[in-house]
Amino acid sequence: MKVLIILFTIFTFSYTSNAQTDRDIWVKELVKMADPILSNLSNNQLKEKMPVEQADSKSTDRALFVHLEGFGRLMAGIAPWLELGVDNTIEGQLRKKYLDYSHKAIYNAVNPESEDYMNFSKGKQPLVDAAFLAQAFLRAPEQLWNNLPKTTKQLVIDAFKKTFTISDIPYSNWLLFSGTIEAFLIKNSDYNDFTRIEFALRKHFEWYVGDGLYSDGKYYHWDYYNSFVIHPMLLDILDVLKTTNHRLKSMSDVTLKRAQRYGIILERQISPEGTFPVVGRSSIYRFGAFQVLAQLALMEKLPKELSNGQVRAGLTAVMKRLHQAKGTYDDNGWLKIGVVGSQPKMAESYICTGSLYLTSLGFLPLGLPSNHPFWTSEPKEWTMVKIWGGNPSVKKDHYTN
Q1: What domains, with CATH codes, occur in the chain?
Q2: What is the pLDDT of residue 55?
């Protein structure tokens, strides 16, 4: 039995013997995913080159939304890495390349005279993906926002304000999209209306069901929207409020505590093989299911129960299972619908090629420098490796309010 346990542990940690470091692998996978969007958009060729894969050809045509979906979501995930800026290392020069792409891409996305000018107001979907783009600026204020020309900044602000004409939005996590855009405007312009933030925060505190989980509107949904949207946008909105005198900034501490509990739950979802339960809608967002755990690592706020080494090891195992699967990309490097490779029947009617780039949100720890303990710590067994390997040191899990 002991021999089997040892062999099992060696199998689950086999990736650590690779000559590449974990960070090298993460960077390689991130830029592979990012390149088609940023290289084409920087050259005003995104609308020409980006495919529109939909699982259900009879559903609403998503071509109107696909470009902002892909760009906004990708930027929210890649922003912390870009925020590290340029240096003389190989990685630092890669960041220079993708920062140059990003600045040109932003201008083309918000310039009404551009071939790749994006839709910020037709239909409801632009509210969602403008919010992810706003989140990117909040996560990389120096490199993505402050380094933009003044004229481009104004075009961004104008584009974001157009989303406030979108009405009759779902009474759910969608409230946080308006709140995130409003938080960006408060931080980066003369806008000073907190209405959307206040409503989003109050409703989500009403919707808290306990143990680190929020319902998505009136009813709880067993899916990963607590990680795709709810916890991360609450944290980012409140990070802006903390710089003001607004009374609701007092919600910050309890919001972080709840996110940390959810981070513990997410870490325990990772099986010894690097898989996790695929449950609920939008499962094809892949690595985005672990955004909360990734964001806590980025914030250096992992709960005391989780070490840097075990979180990095667990997330690396998951990322490799998701992003290195055959069929994840088409022949031109665009993401395909699926969780493990191409699985188009797993998509809801609102899913298209652009939607898939929410997977970038799992890559947030790349915003920590390469010498940070998250990257330099020895890989450790994550919780399910310990439990299913018979490790007697594992402690009981417990509910929190």
Answers
A1: 2-388 (1.50.10.10)
A2: 77
